[in-house]
């Protein structure tokens, strides 16, 4: 059982740290983007370096005090907000935001965990490189949180998720020891993969303090198109044709349902799809080409082939990088439109690619049977990752559906599980999905997870109650 | 302490398995490719399905009997050969070699762990896809071993290593339970990354029984060139230029020292470099292009640019796919030539790319100070992975250097560690490098590894003495 971060503990801890290291949390440290959870804490620790993180963790381990690590606070599953239990210590990495080194000739950057994603991207760009983790929250999320939650985003199809972009980690383990694994190596088979165990563990097995990240050379030319397709099956066939033509040069392939554009028209009328008629489904395809290739020509050829095959009925090719940015802004505005409309239930799911079309049909029918609801389904089709969000009928309030929320989520997740999918594709488990994980997770994996947690964090101090139920 | 797989235990185990499941091991089950280690075993188990593997593991756990899992037996660090300790049970996956399913439209294949790598490649090819793990041993290694050791090879630069090509696993954990994680998903953030923990654990945390693997579409056109370069620094600059021109379409980038070609001339005179004068260093660059691109034109343009910049002094462009295969055969023959010459010590190392040139110079000087020795340095330069092998002077036998072997390896590994490199880039730890890992590994990581091992395999039955010293 944990002890609270009470005044006596905080006074002892303060004595071991430089002045100003412990403070009262601000409201931003105690909530999450959708405003649905309110955290609690004894204090906020703001370490300046890895040694201070280690000292804090060691003190918490000795006193059996829980720690909630904080990145940018943009997570959508409550991993950063502890609402109940003995008062924890919040530990924000925000002061540890330096770029420790950049090695353009190696395509590597070393950054501290508190660096904001957009700053990592900017540092890479200044060195003629690109850090290809693209998230809507990149202006405020921090790289430590991106790694702890194995963030995904819109370029996973080409570059992989946060896990795939990480070469090495420095982390403070739950006993206060420091794992010095900040390697700049592409290959390193020296023992168990502690790096990947910490990535995606959402701060429950240790605190990531710095990372060695992969950079890439920016493509020589980029382009994008919006293409109107009949249905998800046609979108998938289009993806196959794009990859047959262009292989790894297809950077993004996003699917959007007309409901999303209807929400945009209602909440942000300045954001408009460049089609005369709103299609049922729209795809945003993004290319990053090599020297001498012409994005417009490649996109036109793809459009012609797909139109000939009856896959696309309309299309708009970006005529400039500015227009490409507009296309992406359209896509990136959909989550904000969703927030303004107010979802009853949101689902971050993934499916085997060949199960998607059937899932969309079956889930639509099942949701229809539950009541008068609207569905906005969009996402990273190339990765099989859909955001399947359910909304009130027009003119009704989400509160009117409070009784239905559990059944909606259960309906969606049951269909996902039956199709061999995942109930959390990129957002993680946090505290929101602990019960879902218990219900849908593989029993042997869950037992192994509990054993791993007990082995590395025997007192359960690291982000208590996230991912796994607190003992 | 473990018990031996004695007659009483084997009789009990046989009673729970179909006839023919337990047999005496053949010589191939008790040795390794270099013939330097001789294993021992109570018996060989040949399970036909996952349930039988689970029954065997549960019986061993109950009786505290060690298990050595076997794939194709091609590992180079003794992970498959237990020379001492209580007689273990060998468990070969060779009867579990089915393709369970192939999903070309998803770019996924499901295979059992005993499938030979070349058979996985052939199954992918028959479906119009490619499984891009390319190893010299692909005709005999098995995919379970490839994953257990996180195999690398010659296409890691583009496609990643075995870890990066695996979407999901089925595995029997040390308590005999089955982890059903055979997902066909690109994104799945539901809890700790058990998949990556098992990959690279060399059979010490469980037995991989099946895998869900990524496939890719084969490139529309392929080509290769051999280019003579001054030194590793020039080779790296050439790589940077190739990637600036072609981004992810550079599939392989191999570096070879003239010593390797001298060994070829001595042992396989039919394999000849197509240059009039033997250069100090040669690069094999391999491209996989998209539709409409011409390999010869791209390679010529790269050669012209590199020659203009003074990076390459000679070159041969493959004029056909057959000639490309010849170039690769040249590269792939070097390990066999090395075996025929007989290395005193082999090192599978990786370095940060920008440390390679200095390492090669310093290591060459340090080895020169140790005695009259020859060095053959070659490898996957794009990944920073060198095979740095040390040989007797011409006319001398390797046995004459037995007293020097430890010092040679210590010298090489000390330089690698000082440069932030790895003492095992792609071969793993096995039993050969357990002491090296203890010497060079991060102490916090080693403690965490021991805790993870104890948590998942409390009796230490899984591949005892591999990766971590047996208790």
UniProtKB/TrEMBL annotation, chains A, B:
Its cofactor is FAD. Residues 16-42 are annotated as: Disordered. SUPFAM superfamilies: FAD-binding/transporter-associated domain-like, FAD-linked oxidases, C-terminal domain. One of its GO terms (molecular function) is FAD binding. The keyword Flavoprotein applies. InterPro entries: FAD-bd_oxidored_4_C, FAD-bd_PCMH, FAD-bd_PCMH-like_sf, FAD-bd_PCMH_sub2, FAD-linked_Oxase-like_C, FAD-oxidored/transferase_4, Oxid_FAD_bind_N, Vanillyl_alc_oxidase_C-sub2. Residues 26-35 have a biased composition (Basic and acidic residues). The keyword Iron does not apply. Pfam families: FAD-oxidase_C, FAD_binding_4. It comes from the Bacteria. Keywords: FAD, Flavoprotein. One of its GO terms (biological process) is respiratory electron transport chain. Residues 37-218 form the FAD-binding PCMH-type domain. Belongs to the FAD-binding oxidoreductase/transferase type 4 family. PANTHER family: BLL6224 PROTEIN, D-2-HYDROXYGLUTARATE DEHYDROGENASE, MITOCHONDRIAL. This is FAD dependent oxidoreductase. It comes from Cereibacter sphaeroides (strain ATCC 17023 / DSM 158 / JCM 6121 / CCUG 31486 / LMG 2827 / NBRC 12203 / NCIMB 8253 / ATH 2.4.1.).
């Amino acid at each position: 059982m944990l002890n609270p971060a009470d005044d006596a503990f905080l006074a002892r801890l303060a004595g071991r740290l430089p002045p100003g290291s412990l403070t009262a949390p601000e409201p931003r440290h105690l909530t999450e983007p959708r405003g649905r959870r309110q955290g609690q804490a004894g204090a906020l620790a703001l370490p300046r370096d890895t040694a201070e993180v280690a000292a804090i963790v060691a003190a918490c381990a000795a006193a059996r005090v829980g720690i909630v690590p904080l990145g940018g606070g943009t997570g959508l599953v409550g991993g950063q907000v502890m609402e109940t239990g003995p008062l924890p210590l919040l530990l924000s990495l925000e002061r540890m935001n330096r770029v420790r080194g950049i090695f353009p000739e190696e395509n590597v950057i070393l950054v501290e965990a508190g660096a904001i994603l957009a700053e990592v991207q900017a540092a890479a760009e200044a060195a003629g490189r690109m850090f290809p983790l693209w998230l809507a929250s990149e202006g405020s999320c921090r790289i430590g949180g991106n790694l702890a939650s194995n963030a995904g985003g819109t370029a996973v199809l080409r570059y992989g998720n946060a896990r795939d972009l990480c070469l090495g980690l420095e982390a403070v383990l739950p006993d206060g020891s420091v794992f010095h694994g900040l390697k700049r190596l592409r290959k390193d088979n020296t023992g168990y993969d502690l790096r990947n165990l910490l990535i995606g563990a959402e701060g429950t097995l240790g605190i990531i303090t710095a990372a060695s990240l992969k950079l890439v050379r920016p493509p020589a030319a980029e382009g994008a198109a919006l293409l109107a397709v009949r249905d998800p099956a046609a979108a998938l066939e289009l993806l196959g044709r794009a990859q047959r033509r262009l292989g790894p040069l297809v950077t993004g392939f996003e699917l959007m349902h007309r409901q999303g554009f209807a929400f945009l028209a209602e909440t942000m009328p300045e954001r408009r799809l460049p089609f005369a008629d709103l299609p049922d489904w729209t795809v945003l395809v993004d290319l990053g080409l090599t020297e001498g290739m012409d994005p417009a020509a490649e996109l036109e050829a793809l459009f012609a082939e797909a139109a000939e095959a009856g896959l696309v009925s309309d299309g708009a090719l970006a005529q400039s990088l500015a227009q490409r940015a507009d296309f992406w802004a359209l896509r990136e505005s959909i989550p904000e439109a969703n927030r303004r409309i107010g979802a009853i239930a949101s689902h971050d799911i993934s499916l085997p690619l060949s199960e998607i079309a059937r899932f969309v049909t079956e889930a639509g029918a099942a949701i229809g049977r539950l009541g008068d609801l609207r569905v906005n389904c969009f996402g990273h089709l190339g990765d099989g990752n859909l955001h399947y969000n359910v909304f009130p009928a027009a003119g009704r309030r989400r509160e009117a559906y409070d009784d239905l929320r559990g059944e909606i989520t259960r309906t969606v997740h049951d269909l996902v599980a039956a199709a061999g999918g995942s109930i959390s594709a990129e957002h993680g488990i946090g505290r929101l999905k602990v019960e879902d994980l218990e219900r849908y997770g593989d029993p042997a994996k869950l037992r192994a997870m509990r054993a791993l947690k007990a082995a590395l964090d025997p007192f359960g101090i690291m982000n208590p109650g996230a991912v796994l139920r607190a003992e």
